[in-house]
Design a protein that fits this description.
alpha+beta; 32% helix; binds adenosine-5'-triphosphate
């Protein structure tokens, strides 16, 4: 993981937040390659969830919601961790992580009684900071979909089973964030709320676990690094009847990428009761009104990105040198093509290379780079996972051909400039 973290900073994937001020701990900024990778992960998810299925509708709810949402959902009462503070060094710990509940693991000092610590960030809406104006930063995107259930029914008239999908920021005041971007206080979620007939819930849960598991595999995670872990009964959240986590084998141990839960009819019932609105579904055929069950695949964008980075990181011995290469899936690679002139002091070469890059930009994410010798340029592109490097050399001026180098095999092929676009489109 250390090597991945160092690559992220060195090459511009992920930086510490507010770096010049000493950094804000456990907050991270995505740089030029990081934002591309993150967008590609989100795009791949949206494509597999919204575009490639016929039963899911996309949406994008506001982060700030009516405070009653969080009372009805149970978050005000139940969304807490137990924490213990050290009376000497003032450090705070999650009680569950402590081997000795009375003694500080850092300085040996005495710990306070464990107390409830609500994980929601609280703020005030408008100019007056009083209790009447309290709002929360959402700790999950899910509630934005539950409260829009009747809007979707009225505007789109879907039949069961159907789902809603959303990608967006969520905030949790975690007591023990860490492991780079794995656990942070501000993060992004990709969530589906899938409404089903209660009698189909078990079957649909199983289908979603497979569907989501395969998404990670299809985008290149190694099978041996991915597993499903069903929750024990005493681990389940207050609303869930069953849940299976998809876990990745990070260097710090098997850890959750996504949880897929059967939330039953808990959420719709809670919101119906608290809002006074009828949130039951009307089944035309059976002439029956009832609360559907909800199957929820809930994943983290940042955790997926971290898993894809960790899995793609390779070091290979090439002649006497170590080649660092990010073998990201082609849909995830931040840059698809790099155009590199072999000599930067030959104006004709540079001009031709720039023209080729500009043409390719119409179809693929392409960069032009002439700021180093070719060996170094290749190494840079390998490190960020660029799929193809197109090299323009003196010969190209004569025979109108260029060299295309494949990231993974490092094999090179001469291709006519007029065929280059078609060749790369075929590959990509
Ligand atoms: P954990 O047990 O790791 O705290 P969780 O079970 O509380 O996670 P969920 O409430 O199921 O997490 O949230 C769904 C997804 O959102 C998680 O699978 C994870 O990918 C992501 N997520 C949750 N909390 C964080 C966080 N603090 N930082 C980054 N991603 C997070």
């Amino acid at each position: 993981m250390e090597k991945v973290v160092s690559l992220c900073k060195r090459r511009g994937f992920i930086f510490q937040s507010s770096d010049i001020y000493g950094g804000l701990s456990n907050a991270w900024d995505y740089g030029p390659y990081g934002v591309e990778l993150k967008n590609n992960v989100k795009r791949a998810w949206w494509k597999s969830i919204v575009y490639q299925r016929n039963d899911i509708l996309g949406m994008d709810a506001a982060i700030l919601m009516h405070p009653k949402v969080w009372e009805a959902s149970g978050h005000v009462e139940n969304f807490y961790d137990l924490k213990s503070d050290c009376k000497s060094c003032k450090k705070r710990f999650k009680t569950a992580d402590l081997a000795d509940k009375n003694k500080c693991p850092e300085c040996g000092g005495e710990l306070t009684e464990s107390r409830k610590f609500n994980l929601m960030f609280k703020t005030h809406q408008g100019a007056v900071e009083d209790a009447a104006n309290v709002v929360y930063l959402r700790p999950e995107t899910a509630q934005g979909m539950f409260v829009n259930f009747s809007n979707i029914l009225d505007s789109k008239h879907p039949r069961l089973p159907f789902g809603m999908a959303q990608i967006g920021k969520a905030f949790r005041n975690e007591i023990t964030p860490g492991n780079f971007t794995f656990r942070t206080r501000e993060f992004e979620q990709m969530e589906v709320e899938y409404f089903v007939n209660p009698e189909d819930a078990d079957k649909k849960l199983a289908e979603w676990i497979e569907y989501r598991f395969n998404w990670y595999l299809d985008l290149g995670l190694k099978k041996e690094n991915l597993r499903q872990r069903p929750h024990a009964k005493d681990e389940l959240a207050h609303y869930a009847k069953a849940c299976t986590d998809i876990e990745y084998n990070f260097s710090f141990g098997w850890s959750e990428l996504e949880g897929i839960a059967n939330r039953t009819d808990f959420d719709l019932k809670q919101h119906a009761e608290a809002s006074g609105k009828d949130l039951r579904f009307f089944d035309d055929a059976a002439k029956k009104r009832f609360y559907p069950y909800i199957i929820e695949p809930s994943g983290g964008v940042d955790r997926s990105v971290l898993a894809y980075l960790a899995d793609a990181y390779h070091e290979e011995q090439v002649k006497e040198e170590t080649r660092v290469v990010l073998k990201l899936h082609r849909d995830l690679s931040p840059i698809k093509v790099a155009v590199l002139p072999l000599l930067k002091n030959r104006p004709q070469l540079v001009e031709l290379a720039k023209k080729i890059a500009q043409d390719l930009k119409k179809s693929h994410v392409t960069v032009y780079d002439d700021t180093a010798a070719i060996g170094k340029l290749y190494r840079r592109q390998d490190e960020v996972g660029t799929l193809y490097c197109v090299t323009i050399d003196v010969q190209s001026l004569e025979d109108q051909q260029v060299t295309v180098r494949d990231r993974d095999t490092m094999q090179q092929e001469r291709i006519g400039i007029d065929k280059l676009g078609e060749y790369l489109s075929g590959k990509l």
